[in-house]
């Protein structure tokens, strides 16, 4: 009887032993996120650093070369194979245009793109990401916090590029008691001509416009504004460095965190079909501000 019991116990041990000796199956490896930068410039890199600081998943950086093809400084053989990742993030308009040409259904997000709706390819899913467009309402609110007496705001723009923006911004400005005064830039043969009256303005607002990118033109307008004790308002660090009293500065690192939150939502099984406005702050050039206010 004892031998039979010992034999049964021995056979039982032989049956269960493989379960203890064989290792448990490894969890599925996390694919991570591929980030494609249009160019390796400081704002793009800072944005990606903000993304990496927030995400737990591994992030693999790729860059577009001069021929518009992606390459990597690290692993993955330098090739961007969409299927190897849980999500793709385009940084800049060129990267977004490229990633929209890839086949497959890997979620695509973007950042650092102005007017992203205009870059969406036909037949592609709704875009998800963070644009470079600061809503007009948010700009007016920030300016009124610093300039509570703001009533007449000159807007510098080329109608060929931004007439639609100016028309759409008129109503929200009026709702806050602000009259928008057009300062139109017209392209003539070999030069730009400014059409508009600077007199009686409480501030002058620059908005992103591909016709107004010349440093000489921007600095000339800023100089004229300072001479008339009128605050000029820019939209990046260059403006305050060039003498503008104020500038609406996008926080690129926080933009990276905004995109990371969207990636995490997708990884958790959620959906993303929204375009968010970027986080920003109103920077003040204190020296110029005191000069305009007659405190020097």
Structure in a nutshell:
37% of the residues lie in helices and 23% in strands.
Plain-language structure description:
It is a single chain. The strands form 2 sheets. Strands 3-2-1-4-5-6-13 form a 7-stranded mixed beta sheet. Mean pLDDT is 88; it is low at 9-14 and 16-28. It is built from 9 helices and 14 strands. Helix 3 (93-99) links the parallel strand 4 (87-91) and strand 5 (108-113). With 296 residues, it is of the alpha/beta class. The protein has 2 domains: 33-132 and 252-277, Response regulator (Rossmann fold); 136-234, Rossmann fold (3-Layer(aba) Sandwich). Helix 2 (42-54) crosses helix 8.
Q: Classify the fold: give the CATH topology of the largest domain.
A: Rossmann fold
Q: What is the subunit organization of this protein?
A: single chain
Q: Please identify, by name, the CATH architecture of the largest domain.
A: 3-Layer(aba) Sandwich
- Unreliable runs, pLDDT <50, ≥5 residues? 9-14, 16-28
What's the tally of helices? 9
Summarize the SSE layout with pairings.
Elements: H1 2-21, E1 33-37, H2 42-54, E2 59-64, E3 70-71, E4 87-91, H3 93-99, E5 108-113, E6 129-131, H4 136-146, E7 152-157, H5 159-175, E8 179-188, E9 191-195, E10 203-206, H6 215-227, E11 232-234, H7 237-241, E12 246-250, H8 252-267, E13 275-276, E14 280-284, H9 286-292
Parallel strand pairs: 1-2, 1-4, 4-5, 5-6, 6-13, 7-8, 7-10, 10-11, 11-12
Antiparallel strand pairs: 2-3, 8-9, 12-14
